[in-house]
Design goal:
The complex is a heterodimer of chains A (about 120) and B (about 500). By secondary structure, chain A is mainly beta. Chain A contains one helix and seven strands, in the order βαββββββ. Chain B is globular and about 80 Å long. The chains are: A mainly beta (about 120), B alpha/beta (about 500).
Chain lengths: ~120, ~500
């Protein structure tokens, strides 16, 4: 189920294009711990399981995450950006000394992803 | 202050401007000749160059480890334990030096590295030296003529990938049991904090036979991944972030080898009504326990980042708790009176501050802190965040997601049942804290919490000999206990018949 809005800055789109040229098709996995991060992997690297859900696309690149984290995302506008410094784990942009980062702007006016209407963050869970 | 510290250190040990890998007892340049610049979070400025290794370097380290693994595995336990103790002694003799390097590399206050990180790391070597000496196999008498002997045997060569929040302590948590158990190790430190362990190799590198302990630096995808995927490791141990943990497990499945994982947390710290029965030493200790979220700048998997306070004492308790948190001294990590230092990276700082904003947007109230601490002098560009208390409810993101910073989210509860339901309403299950003067309540509550460690009337103690590890999405396996030897050993069973008689089947 798609998030309400998941977009990328020009810097993130450019970096994705560059990495795509080097590594082929990619996947962005939103990951929970150590502060929320977004990890960029070759498309087939992470074996997806029952908890993973497709939540959007940046261009052709799918964005996925573990479903049990998703309730905290449905009233947020998600923007994927690039920041300086080494990122997380085995994310493939690490050697560039930059990393994908993720910002969320909460917007209670967004429709709930289930399509059941407006929902404020306080009504979650 | 930084330059002064480096000058002081370089009188005691060679501080290299450039660190190669430590492989087979030697300093070995990365095959591709690439390096990256290591910044200190204290000032955000470079302190040294570090090998940017690739799969080729991992292979070299594995060659070195495989060359010596049979010899090390056969070395008498008494001798292995002696060498572990020697490492501990050497570290103890150089405590201040190691503590200073760790503070420069990670940004944590020297008070903590001197009093906690390094002394705990030292004790870890001694603990596993002792465990190894005391370890026994077993004998089972199947019948009068048939005996099962059980021997412990090392796995061989193991891979270990460690995080940046306690670089040397996490290294020693993993190295001591693996090496004690007779294994050789290839370790990949975190690229954020690659220096202190290399200084440690300069100190202790000649104690163990060459090849037993190898350290290869580099980025996760270039050096960590080829280690985790390698056909020549018999086990992989990892501490870090969730998706990387999943990948580690996946790679382990491709080679059918075991893995142990220590992942995230969102640990509850629960204060029952009787905590405030008296304004005494115990109450003071509980207030310190509340403030423990600021330890190590909150960059701890077990950070007590959710505080649950009984509604009847909430106002009284929080008034005192806020004062306690406001008295935390933030400053230069090398100043011995500093209680909270710098976050490990700019990114980490940005993430923490964005969580405060998210919290506010969801209706959480900032009770204290909430902003970047802009310190003067050479710390101007360092990554400092004020210790922060947010008040809200457990469904908010700041109660559910690991922030990894000096931020605690506080809420009230009115009954034991409610406290338990809030405590367990999380993806994680690493740490937790229970504060009550009632022993029976502490026992029942502690048993009901879904977490691997329940600190009871204490928090953030990490002694060797108390098992540490996670329930739920916090990981698999335990550390800091003699059971760790089992995580690094095979069981060999010899089933022996002393009967001369055929079974009679054929």
């Amino acid at each position: 189920m798609p998030l309400n809005e998941i977009t990328a800055t020009d810097a993130a789109t450019d970096l994705l294009a560059k990495l795509h040229a080097q590594h082929g098709p990619l996947r962005l996995q939103i990951s929970g711990s150590y502060g929320v991060s977004v990890i960029c992997l070759p498309a087939a690297e992470l074996r997806l399981g029952a908890r993973d859900e497709l939540v959007g696309h940046i261009g052709e690149t799918p964005v996925t995450m573990m479903i049990n984290e998703e309730r905290y995302w449905r009233d947020a506008r998600v923007i994927i950006d690039v920041a300086k410094g080494v990122g997380v784990g085995f994310s493939i942009e690490g050697p560039e000394r930059v990393h994908f980062t993720l910002r969320r702007r909460l917007d209670p006016s967004l429709r709930d992803w289930t399509g059941q209407g407006r929902q404020s963050s306080h009504a979650e869970g | 202050m930084i330059q002064q510290a480096l000058n002081e250190l370089s009188q005691q040990i060679r501080i290299r401007p450039k660190y190669d890998n430590f492989i087979g007892g030697n300093w070995v340049a990365p095959v591709k000749g690439q390096y990256f610049t290591n910044l200190t979070p204290v000032t955000g400025k470079p302190i040294c160059e570090i090998a940017r290794s690739t799969a080729e370097d991992i292979e070299l380290a594995l060659d070195a480890a495989h060359k010596v693994k049979d010899q090390w595995g056969r070395t008498a336990p008494a001798e292995r334990a002696r060498l572990l103790n020697k490492i501990a002694d050497k570290m103890e003799q150089n405590l201040k030096l190691i503590a200073m390097i760790e503070t420069l590399d990670n940004g944590k206050p020297i008070r903590e590295t001197m009093a906690a990180d390094i002394p705990l790391a030292i004790d870890h070597w001694r603990y596993f030296a002792g465990c190894l000496r005391a370890q026994e196999g077993s004998i089972s008498e199947i019948d009068h003529d048939t005996v099962a002997y059980h021997f412990h045997e090392p796995l061989g060569v193991v891979g270990q990938i460690i995080p940046w929040n306690f670089p040397l302590l996490m290294a020693c948590w993993k190295l001591a049991p693996a090496i004690a158990a007779g294994n050789c190790v290839v370790m990949k430190p975190a690229e954020q904090t690659p220096m202190s362990i290399m200084v440690l190799m300069d100190l202790i590198g000649d104690i163990l036979p060459a090849g037993v302990l190898n350290v290869v630096n580099g980025f996760g995808v270039e050096a960590g991944k080829p280690l985790a995927q390698n056909k020549r490791i018999a086990k992989i141990a990892f501490t870090g972030e969730t998706t990387t943990g999943r990948l580690i497990m996946q790679y382990a499945s491709e080679n059918i080898i075991p893995c142990t994982l220590e992942l995230g947390g969102k640990s509850p710290n629960i204060f029952f009504e009787d905590v405030a029965d008296h304004d005494d030493d115990y109450f003071d200790k509980a207030l310190e326990g509340f403030s423990m979220f600021a330890l190590n700048q909150g960059e701890v998997c077990t950070c007590p980042s959710r505080a649950l306070v009984h509604e009847k004492i909430y106002d009284r308790f929080m008034e005192r708790a806020i004062k306690r948190v406001q008295s935390i001294k933030q400053g230069h990590p090398l100043d011995p009176s500093t209680m909270i230092g710098a976050q490990a990276s700019n990114d980490q700082m940005e993430k923490i501050l964005s969580y405060v904003e998210i919290g506010k947007n969801e209706g959480a109230k900032v009770l204290t802190g909430g902003e970047r601490a802009q310190l003067g002098g050479e710390m101007w560009e360092g990554y400092y965040v004020q210790p922060t208390i947010l008040e809200g409810h457990n469904k908010m993101r700041v109660f559910q997601e690991e922030i990894f910073g000096p931020v605690v989210s506080v809420t009230k509860f009115s009954s034991d049942e409610e406290a338990l339901s809030i405590a367990n309403d999380t993806l994680y299950g690493l740490g937790s804290g229970v504060w009550t003067r009632n022993g029976t309540r502490a026992y029942r509550f502690g048993r009901a919490i879904q977490a691997g460690r329940v600190w009871t009337n204490c928090y953030h103690l990490y002694p060797a000999h108390a098992a540490f590890g996670g329930y739920k999405q916090s990981g698999i396996g335990r550390e800091t206990h003699k059971m760790m030897l089992d995580h690094y050993q095979q069981t060999k069973n010899m089933l022996v018949s002393y009967s001369p008689k055929a079974l009679g089947f054929f």
